User: Fold this.
Amino acid sequence: MSPTVISHNTLQEADLLSLNFIIEASSARSLDLLRAVDATLGWLCTQKDVFDKFLVFTRQYHETIKTLEADNTPLDPDGRAEASFNLALDLLDKYYNTLSSKRESARNDRRLTDEDGIADGYTSLMESVRNLHERLSDLAWCVGENDVDVELSGSHKISNRRTYKKNEIKQLLEDLKK
Assistant:
């Protein structure tokens, strides 16, 4: 029986096949990671857009309330709006903390780089959540201030701008939604 002779070409083919397998396995993992990065960035942008839209609506609502002339009618007579504000503010706090934890995880993930933008995406979304929290807090304060002023004085003009009667609030809010 003669010994098997391994040619130089056979070694090169085996090396190339091994190298090809390693590259394909590495590429598949990288593609999966890139897909996950892309999906996460898409989700972060969508969430930011949602919170930014709420921020715009809250600003408009706040401006509307500031232009109302109170006619001895509180804006939140039964306190339900205050309870809703408090619940929303608590939820925003919790969501902000969750986002902060996720951002920290992204920063600590060795598979991610700064160029991936994940940590920056979380920071941007957190900023939108914080801005909405601040504006919602201002809005809650404005509603409460109006109601206290109405209770103490019987009427209150919040602004020197054009004033609206209480019965116009629903129409103004509907117009703001458009």
Summary: The radius of gyration is 29 Å. The first strand starts at residue 69 and ends at 70.
